[in-house]
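Agenda item 2: 26V complex prediction
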Amino acid sequence: PVIFEDDRTSVTTEGLKRAFYDHLFYTQGKFPEIAGLGDYYQALAHAVRDRTLQRWISSVADHTATAPKTVAYLSAEFLMGPHMGNNLINLGIYDTVKKAVQEIGLDLNELLRQEEEPGLGNGGLGRLAACFIDSLATAEIPAFGYGIRYEYGIFYQTIMDGWQVENTDKWLRHGNPWEIQRAEWAVEVKLGGHTEQYQDDLGRLHVRWAPEKTVAGVPFDSPIVGYKVTTTNTLRLWRAEATEAFDFSQFNRGDYLGAVDKKVTSENLTKALYPNDETVQGKELRLEQQYFFVSCSLQDMLRIHKARGMEPDTFDQKFAIQLNDTHPAIAVAELMRLLIDDNMMPWDQAWGITTRTFSYTNHTLLPEALERWPLDLFKRILPRHLEIIYEINARFLNDVRIKFLGDDSRLARLSLIDESGERYVRMAHLACVGSHTINGVAELHSELLKQDVLKDFYEMWPEKFTNVTNGVTPRRWMVLSNPRLTKLVSETIGEGWITDLPQLSKLEPHAEDSAFRDSWRAIKRANKVDLAALILRRTGVAVSPDSMFDVLVKRIHEYKRQHLAVLHIITLYHRLKSGRSAYTLPRTFIFGGKAAPGYTMAKLMIKLINAVGDVVNNDRDVHDLLKVVFLPNFNVTYGQCVYPGADLSEQISLAGKEASGTGNMKFAMNGALTIGTMDGANIEIRDQVKAENFFLFGHTASEVHDIKASGYRPRDIYEVNAELRAVVDLIQTGFFSRGDTDVFKPIVDNLLDHDPYLLLADYQSYIDCQDVVSDTYREADTWARMSILNSARSGKFSSDRSIAEYAKNIWKVEAVPITLKP
Ligand code: 26V
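Presented output:
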């Protein structure tokens, strides 16, 4: 009998090959003789997208029919990374597709490399959102990711003469096969103008917002396929466009080009991602971006809610909205506006719904990252929201008065409006007041929030505060990134760990099996060969896979202390130059990360890394024992090659500064050992892997507090520590800058006279700890045991665990198994 399998759904080798050629011909309009790799990628991508659609539509159909409580994850950033590989894994068709592609005469890895990664995020916060939507779908929880479809994502970084240069990221250049535009669900967003009161037919007073302009929000949907389940959720990203009505009125007045010009202005809204992490600038366009995507998303949720036959008064029973930091916090005022002004709901009822709907995650302790908007700017863009915020504030401050009678300074500290100088709207305060739950992203971070940044809110509502330690998805960060390790692990303990990461603990006994250790080390070696090839391709520097790969990849920031790692490198170099080479372990220092374009000190740190690398890499006395490379444009794609090839994971932020870190988890699960401080999730990683399998150094957060309180004088440390002095002097005297003593002066002066991130205070502890690392690495067997145990004990750091906690304790949502519709 002839079995007909649809070209769009078949997952046999033959079916996939037919689908591939079908798309090459009918979607790309090409035939093999003239097709390029880009065409082949597009053809395969469309074939794979087809295979997500039956599940996607089945999920939407079931969710529409049964209206289960749904999570809306609101995030200004989703740092997805390439879609294709992940979809192949989650659909369970990776190997079949690889074979089909091979039979066609192509290499799957080469096709995967064709995808422009959607870099719609800066770093940790955006990547966390991406891991979370993978885990939500895998847990079969109905969920939307709502965000912004930036036309330009995070800038493309190149290095010229050691300096970072920013280039635009034209990720949509070749089209995006992973999205479907939904013009029919476009919404209108108002901006500017003023408000007016009016009476309805019954004589009741209402407020109307007469905006200065409106923009249209058009949703672009991408499927988020759960791992080997039918559930496929939606990532809905909004693009700003000119509204029809808007264009038309101008056009009628004969100003055609004026109308087109306005169209361009509207489209600027979602043109580019702001490349700052951790420092806010009160930029009008940024506020408009935030409000734009929040308004689009809330209107969309209300539309869906009504389409499911429900009234606005049950909104909180059907939607749980998570605010990913304060970037979407304006949602609190926007939902109030939609309920009160558009749905005519009384204030108290609307406020009840709002506070039962929202919860807020804080991602940073740095004061400079707390968002505040100058009041006049805020009023100009969002006049109605300012009125609503004043009303929320008035009622809130009355509650504070009742609880803390006569405490006026507390009122000033808690107010949604900062009135200490120029007036600001404090977005973290709006998020706290409007949410039922507030969480930090690691134990220490959540504690410090209560003691410090959000202390007054904690004293007001201790019951709102909780912790959810971050996690990362093992599908992308192990199965896709590290196929060799995945194979060994699955052969050893079965495949259950992929969705139940604590099962990795079954590897523990194998740490004592020398054959297993040999396989483990062979895999690390092979991954290092791959990474060395990437490094050679991108930097021109040949590094040896037999050296220790010591890796520091993350955004460049003073608090993350990349320059502390540089002090260590110079220390080793100096020792070598003074004739102690026999004791030097061959090490390759691998750096990667972007600096915010306006962050001068961070850019100088990149220059310093490259300058030291230039000297060290080319000094014959070093005998290739030390290599320093800066891998340009570190992103998700490179991460997938870097984490599996690392021996040592550098997590060296000043204690109390890194909220959690998530790279630390990716390294650990791939068998790298950590050298780190008692900061963020490092503490919990050390708890899990046990102290003897973790290289700890540096002062604790509370010691840091005391050191600063008792008047820290970094220069005193420099004066008494000869080795440190030699290292700093090498930089200071221009040794790494051809005698130029000016270039690195800002770094040196800052370290000697201010050192806000305590590099000098932690220097000796770091160096001593690194010496222990070297001694340990020399004992290959010991290192392999420790490496296995790190991976085996990293089960806690799956984002599946994080999502299970959010679902149970915060969102109160459950799994909804989906049946595949024919
Ligand atoms: C701030 C701003 C300021 C305005 C311009 C755009 C922008 C974008 C991002 C941010 C905040 C970034 C905060 C962030 O990424 N925090 C990181 O979050 C990770 C996930 O929770 C966590 O692991 C890191 O420790 C934390 O630094």
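Discussion summary: The domain at 67-82+117-470+805-811 is CATH 3.40.50.2000 (Rossmann fold).
Owner for follow-up: CH.
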